[in-house]
């Protein structure tokens, strides 16, 4: 069974009750478990002794013969009762039962006289307090109101609503309140129905809206809303948070009262009553809050467990309710006190017992309680102990090795060592709680353990247990030792050259350095053994300038962090100022005074240079334009000359005909004008070359076969009448038109000079 210890548990627990004055009262309590079991009762935490007024029955229930709210000695039978059961396994306590006396006060609200026109709405109310809650009924003219009439609505809180009033509704009304304590009558009130039904328009108006309610799950909530107007308004309900109200368990009483049966926590919220004029958006609203509480109940019960001596026992108890319940732990009926080895976590939902021993064997109870009720669950811890277990390990010692390492050594137990299968070393920071402890397993032949990855300058506690297949020994004595302090780590160092005699050393602060008091800076010339320094710098300093250096040598700069435990490892950098000096020689700094004196002269020179450059560009452009135009004219002249018919031989001899088609005088003139024949054009006109035989006898020139046959002329020139004029190329002259400047001179034809 969940939440029960098989050795001892409750089957029936006392429940809340309302007792009647001078009447007997029975509180039930039934327990199961291993006999013998002793049952006792308490009221408000005080043991109840058997007397004539109160005594325990054979089944364990408590019987109160005459319940008294107030006795002659000033005591009262009202209070919180609980039942305790005990056997040799432990003790358990039941939930607390709240016992109250049945009462009824006088009416504090009486119905009032009312005059309402026909067709209107009448409302009467009376209120009275009592335990249990009084049932209120209404009478008209000394007769119970007919509840079968749909126009009459009775609400649980003592409200009577009458809608669609008629003349026969007039009369005298009063209410009757009844509970187990008493019956009471309110004052009378007269209802007068006047006139006939009015047809005058009236805006919708809410006479009474919903009130704030706080109830418990499974109860019924009635939210009142009564509205008037002409025409009769339509009443509707909604939730302020926009969630749907739902349909299950929802009912409308009368013309607009909302009743919610079998309440759950999800019904909590703010409810809005709206009175709407039919066919329009004219409306009036009123709102009230509904709070639904739920008594504490367990989601997870604690479970009985068995654990060997020296191990850890954990109980878990999770409860829910509205409002959230508070959890309290009991050990054998007494409130559990926390200590170094007993801890409560997760809002008391988890109970942890570290290093258990036989004294921890008991029944542990979890009590969950809120304003709506309480509940309890129990579980038993059994501590396993076997005969012949080893005694605790002896001579536990711990020695500090470094800032992060401690060596722990011990000696084997004095008794029952044959069955030992290993040892477990328990490690914990001395300042940490027990649950932060961790363990390291060691073989049975090892009597020392090097514990690493510890924190510097920190105290640690150690103890050892010897383990067998049947359980563990008791813990050894605890030894506490501290690790050494740790020097800081290496800082990051950067060197920046400022000028030919100064460098700047910079570094970054970092948490990786650990705690440090400051920095030490050293520097030296690399060919020397002696450092300059140390320069002591505070822990918040991150830069230092080293001045008056020699630019011709290389320097070594060293930086380290230090603290009370010593100096950390250093970071070394090398720097040369020679490159800076060379850059200064190649690019000397400007003489600002001299530059100011020469500023005007330099500006004038720049302007003159710009003018000269522009002038040269203009002349080059003109030269190219005129040169190109000249070449076009020359090509045109050559074409005209070549198209002229050949002259007789006699005339050619006198005119000095040459292959180029011009006399030397003409060639000279063309040379002066910078004009030349287009050799490509000549090749096109005379493509064929004469054979070797023809070259010996003379030169034969013929037109291209594609020329018309009637224009074909053949000329044969003797060698003695043929001369070659060689022209030297003028480097300044332009190439012929239509040819590339880089192209070689074309072949003008084969010519042999005898």
UniProtKB/TrEMBL annotation:
Compositionally biased intervals (Low complexity): 735-754
Keyword terms of this UniProt record: Disulfide bond, Glycoprotein, Immunoglobulin domain, Membrane, Repeat, Signal, Transmembrane, Transmembrane helix
GO biological process: cell-cell adhesion
Major subcellular site: membrane
SUPFAM superfamilies named in the record: Fibronectin type III, Immunoglobulin
Pfam families per UniProt: fn3, I-set, Ig_3
Lineage: superkingdom: Eukaryota
Transmembrane segments: 606-626
Domain Fibronectin type-III residues, every copy: 392-486, 487-583
GO cellular component: membrane
Presence of keyword Membrane: yes
Region (Disordered): 644-754
Bias (Basic and acidic residues) ranges: 663-673
Biased composition (Polar residues): 644-657, 707-716
Location within or outside the cell: Membrane
Family the UniProt entry places it in: Belongs to the immunoglobulin superfamily. DCC family.
PANTHER family named among the record's database cross-references: IMMUNOGLOBULIN SUPERFAMILY DCC SUBCLASS MEMBER 3, PROTEIN SIDEKICK
Name assigned to this protein: Immunoglobulin superfamily DCC subclass member 3
Gene name in the database record: Igdcc3
